[in-house]
Amino acid sequence: MAEFLILPAVYIGGLIGLYEMFLVHKDEAFRGSHWLKHGWHALLVTMFFVFLSMNVDFVYSIIPALKDVPIIAIRGLIAVIAAAKVHTAAAVLRSSALGPTLGETWIHSLVVGILIAVAPYIWPFIEPLFTNFLGLPV
Q: What is the mean pLDDT of residues 86-110?
């Protein structure tokens, strides 16, 4: 049976979420608490999508009817939904009372989505960083 991954999803989701926060800081023309609120939102939502992507194997092991659907298709769907969510959050900010913003680009949104989709494949390579170097539990 596949493993249910919680902490690895939090670790990688945190890294991708921080990357997204820095993209937002670069792309959006707002500062202070507005940037921080959007950043926390981006961080938590990214962790959620990484959690979904990393646990597709676990869901496959408990629901045999999904065996006909390729795992990469499910992760790709999660990536597309995540990229759309990232871009939509930036679009809401553009139309809010915060004034004109530059807007998060589709390229940045797609990069975040792709990182979410490949997170389960990257984890075996960066796991030693978290366990050996940083001493974090897995």
A: 65
Positive/negative CA dihedral, 90, 94, 96, 100: positive
| Cβ atoms of residues 54 and 9 within 8 Å | yes
Total residues belonging to the chain:
138
Question: Could you give the 3-state DSSP secondary structure of residue 30?
Answer: coil
DSSP state of 28: -
CB 126 within 8 A of CB 115: no
pTM of full prediction above 0.85: no
Q: Which residues of 17-41 are buried (b: 16+ CB within 10 A; e: fewer)?
A: bebbbebbeebbebeeeebeebbee
The amino acid that residue 62 corresponds to is I
**3-class DSSP state for residue 135?**
coil
Q: 8: helix, coil or strand? A: helix
